[in-house]
Each structure stands twice: as C-alpha cells, then as structure tokens.
Amino acid sequence: MKTVLVVDDDQNICRITKLYLEKSGYAVVTANDGEQALTQFEQLQPDFIVLDIMLPKRDGWSVCKKIRAMSDVPVLMLTARGHVDERIEGLQMGADDYLVKPFDPNELVARVTTILRRTLTRTEAASPSHIYEIGSLRVDALSHDVTVEGQLVALPKKEYELLLFFMRNPNQVFTREDLIAKIWGWDFEGEDRVVDLYIKRLRQKLKALTERKVDWNIRTVWGIGYKFEGPDAC
Questions:
Q1: Torsion sign over Cα 172, 175, 178, 182
Q2: Does the first or last residue of the chain, that is N or C, have fewer Cβ atoms within 10 Å of its Cβ?
Q3: CA distance 77 to 184
Q4: First-to-final CA distance of the chain
Q5: b/e map 149-166, b = 16+ CB within 10 Å
Q6: What are the residue boundaries of the Response regulatory domain, all occurrences included (predicted)?
C-alpha cells in the first residue's frame, strides 16, 4: 500500500482528500503547515506528496525545495486559480504536476495514480536487468552478491540458484517438482524433500541478518509447494 502525505491548512480539504484516497487503496497522513509537513516526510518517507502552496510557518515552495534536496518522491502542488506564476515556480522547484483549487477529488486521485505509475515505470526501466530487489533483499546476478539490509550473505551454489529463481519469479507458486527441475535438473535422483531442506536453510540465513520483521517471505503453500512474496504481494 502506497502512502500519500496531504499538506493543506484547510482541514476540510485534508479530510475530503484523505477520504477519496483511502477509498482508492492509499494510506494517507496529513499535515497543516510547512514545518509539520517536513517532520511527517522525514519520519514516514511517504510515496507521494500532495502539497498546497499557501501554508503557515513555511510555504509550499520552501517545503518542495527542501524535500527535493533529499528525495525524488513525486509532488503534486495545489495552486490558486489563475495564479500562473505559482504553477511555474512550483514546477521549477521540482513539482511533478499541479492542480488548481477548487478541484474534483476524483481528478486528484487519478493524477496521483497516474504519476505513481509513471514513476514506477521509469524506475523499473532505469534499474539494471541483473539486479533483483524485493524489500530489503537484493541479489546481483552478475557478481552473485546477496544482501539483506546491505549485509552480505554467503550462500552455497544451489541455495543461491534457488533464491535467484524465486526473485525472478515473485508471487508465483511452484511445486517441489518444479523447483527440482529448474534448480537440480530433470535427472536428479534424490528425494523431493531436498527442496524443503534448502528452503529452511535459506530462511534461516536470510532472516538471521535482521531483527525486524522481514518485508519478504518464502511461504509454504500447503499441499502445493512454495511461493516467494514481496511487500506488494497479492
């Protein structure tokens, strides 16, 4: 679930915007002045920011400029009708789009969704094809480096191949027979329970490097096999 930070000193706008975004599946936090917006941003690291220009304590231009120095998070600025200079300055400060007040909440939701989709596509296109990242877990298929929260994990060849296969095929269920065919080959003559052993080792080694709840999981699908899930798994 993506998190949207809505910043406006008008409580009614915050309430209505929050309602419409939550109905569309977003988590929403609000702020009512520029200082509070920066505090919320630093603490929560939202995926999107809806930012009014006219704010108490610190205006939207200043907030946008400060955020742009730290992050590429998408920003949609709210401007007053007819104030062309405001829209131009907001875009120059690094805003991704603007919406003129008063606005239709449905249009705001549509713009948030479109910008997030475009940002995700751009990020995926820029990512090296040999790098696989799911949550805090990262695999480099060229160097064979596996890291959890930046910490290197030493894996034997078959454990590494099994993990790489899962990372390349997230959120799909595979039987033991599927995994044996892909990792060990069709001529493997051992027991299919070898898959259970390797997965158990993988779980132990990867989860040993973090005390937090992991944002990925090799899940047992009872009666079928295994499924590798990331933070956005369905």
A1: positive
A2: C
A3: 54
A4: 11
A5: eeeebebeeebbbbbbeb
A6: 3-116
- How do the pLDDT tens digits run along the chain, 234 residues long? 789 999 999 999 999 999 999 999 999 999 999 999 999 998 888 999 999 999 999 998 899 988 888 888 899 999 876 566 666 666 666 788 888 888 999 999 999 998 888 776 555 554 556 888 887 889 988 888 999 888 898 888 889 999 999 988 888 899 998 898 888 876 676 777 889 999 999 998 888 877 666 678 899 999 899 999 876 543
> What's the one-letter identity of residue 85?
D
Q: Which of 144, 231, 158 is nearest to 199 (CA)?
A: 158
Q: Are 110 and 102 in contact (CB under 8 A)?
A: no
Write the DSSP assignment of 28-71 as a string of letters: EEEESSHHHHHHHHHHH--SEEEEESS-SSS-HHHHHHHHHTT-
| Greatest alpha-carbon span in the chain | 75
Q: Which helix (H) or strand (E) holds 118?
A: helix 105-126
d(CA 65, CA 170): 37
Separation between Cα atoms, residue 226 and residue 179, nearest integer Å: 9
CB 174 within 8 A of CB 221: no
pTM above 0.70, yes or no: no
